[in-house]
Amino acid sequence: MSETVQENKLVELTYQVLDQKSGAELTAVEFPVGYVHGRNEILSGPIMEALEGRSSGEVIEVPIEGDLLYGERDESLVITDHLENVPEDYREVGTTIIMENDKGETKNFLVTRVDEKSVTIDGNNPLCGRDLLFKLEILTVRDATEEEIELGGPIEPEPEIENMVELTE
Question: Which reactions is this enzyme annotated as catalysing (predicted)?
């Protein structure tokens, strides 16, 4: 009988985030992500709850509103400016711009639109305001070691020094 996801179990999984309406993949984590259940909440509470009691090899789908994870969309974070006021490095859709306020706090904005006259940036998380579907594949469930429980995740192996190449030129 395989182990089930519960407190102090090391869990490794991969996941995709899909748009519920279109089915389009919005993001994916294809490399195994490891955590100790109940010690490190790498995903939101409702997703962690849905994993509880599941076994390795299972694929589960968890619908969730993006606003619950990323907050409600704030239209005041959408800014359009004249093209000539925007540095050329920021004139490509998909570019991330880090802005800083008077208090020294930073926020990421994403260039979402560029035309011949203007550039639009958006400081909202791209997933807020969407109905999302998290599709998770559980790869491994096992007892976590004491060290993994303390750290909240898997222990990365130390590199073998004899296999490292030193560049000293």
Answer: [protein]-peptidylproline (omega=180) = [protein]-peptidylproline (omega=0)
